[in-house]
Amino acid sequence: MTIEATWLAASGASACDLRNETATWRADLDAPAGDPSLPNPHDLLDSALAACTTLTLQVYAKRKGYDLREVHVSVRHEEAPGTYKMIRTVRIDGELPPNVREDLLRVANKCPVHKSLSAQISIETTLTA
């Protein structure tokens, strides 16, 4: 699936519109230059990991019949020259013995976005008129 981002100078705003084949959303710069109600690009990246972790745990627990009642995932990041460190905290609620909790942690670390972000990533860019 391809993500497209569009910005128009005539809009008078810094926000860009994003879309794929099935959904639309927006992103902006950090305040004060942008709209503080919209996520910035780093928020979008961090939210991809949080969402993928949450959804992966939900599906896995349902398939395994685990008594998982709630999943809460928070992701924050720290940046330094040449590094981007994501700090993820997973909280799960339910009647879950220690071995099931360990299994869920293992699965959280195998969600597709986690695997992608942990891999070597290359970006190929072309400029068109």
TrEMBL record:
Span of the signal peptide: none
Domain of life of the source: Bacteria
InterPro entries, A to Z: KH_dom-like_a/b, OsmC/Ohr_fam, OsmC/Ohrsf
Listed name of the protein: OsmC family protein
